[in-house]
Please model this.
Amino acid sequence: MSAVVQIEEIHKIYNSGEVPVHAVRGVTLQIAKGDFVAVMGASGSGKSTLMNLLGCLDRPTKGRYLLDGTDVSGLDRNQLADIRNQKLGFVFQGFNLLARTTARENVELPMLYGRTRFSSRELHERAMSCLELVGLGQRAEHLPNQLSGGQQQRVAIARALINEPQVILADEPTGNLDSKTSVEVMGVFQKLNTQGITIIMVTHELDIARYCKRNLIMRDGRLVSDVLVPQRSVATEELQKILEAEAAAKLTD
Model:
């Protein structure tokens, strides 16, 4: 399959002090359409910097980055903003939902910042479609404080989908969630991935990385490992085991 992400000898050097900091060192990588990739590494390994580059939130010092066939390496700030809005969806650890805004209205927000103008009906229909996709159609008019942590993260995922991005970038999306809810959220990601959506996820949790198809490991700014997951976890199966264990525990109480 064709590469939706292609980076060639990417470097990122920060000159914040007397000694330059080489956050990313000569990384070359291809991610095909429909792939599901976990990026891992210790603190300071360069994984977050790499994700910022892939998300067009920063520009490489050296190297080339093709996103869906477009060379974004030298684009200016406004051009990068357009690319982010058109081709990328973001999911963060902290959900970043507006507290006084309904789930549906939170999902609609990215459409309001694009160059294309949509009618209220179009906004509503697309937001509802995305919420249905993540299993939250019945909670569309609820405020964030009326939703569980897992439901809030599903709203964030729906928001990332609203502009039909080529790639979803997820930064520790289960970091604030308990084990059961984390499995539920990974089930949503796996469902989206089976529909052809490319997902790149930063995580420090090995159990979460096993839900992906491919694991990348960063160390000292370099990509030191790129392997397929040999025994991939399936969220629906893992969730069933959790539910069965909970039911058995109740019987013994």
